[in-house]
Amino acid sequence: MTKLPRDLLTLRRPRLLVQAARAGQADYRRDRTLARLLPGNHAAPAGTLRRLMALELEMETERRAGAATYPVARHVEILIALMAEARLIGEGAPPAQ
Predict the structure, then answer these.
(1) Which superkingdom does the taxonomy of this entry point to (predicted)?
(2) What is the pTM of this model?
(3) Per-residue model confidence as pLDDT tens digits over 71-93
(4) Which of 48, 57, 43 is nearest to 94 (CA)?
(5) SS3 per-residue string spanning 10-44
(6) How far apart are CA 68 and CA 34, in angstroms?
(7) Is the pLDDT of residue 19 over 90?
C-alpha cells in the first residue's frame, strides 16, 4: 500500500460537497473524467493525484472567496476524481480504465 499525501489526509470540505462526491463515485470513469479535467498523461496515479489536489485547491479558494464564477459542479467532479485516485493509490492497484 502506497502512502497518501498528508495534505489529502487532512483535507476538510463542507459536508454537502463531500456527500455529492461520494455519491458520484459509482459513475467515475477514469479515462473520461481525467481527460476532461487534466489533459495529458494519467498513467501514474500519484502524479495525477497531485495535479487534482492543485485543481481542487483552486476551486476551494474560489468557493471561500465567494467568487461569482465558482463552478460547484466542477468542484464536485474534481473531488470525485480525487477520491477515486486516492483509493487507487491506497489499494496499490493499477489504474482501472
Answers:
(1) Bacteria
(2) 0.83
(3) 999 999 999 999 998 888 876 65
(4) 43
(5) CCCCCHHHHHHHHHHHHHCCHHHHHHHHCCCCCCC
(6) 25
(7) yes
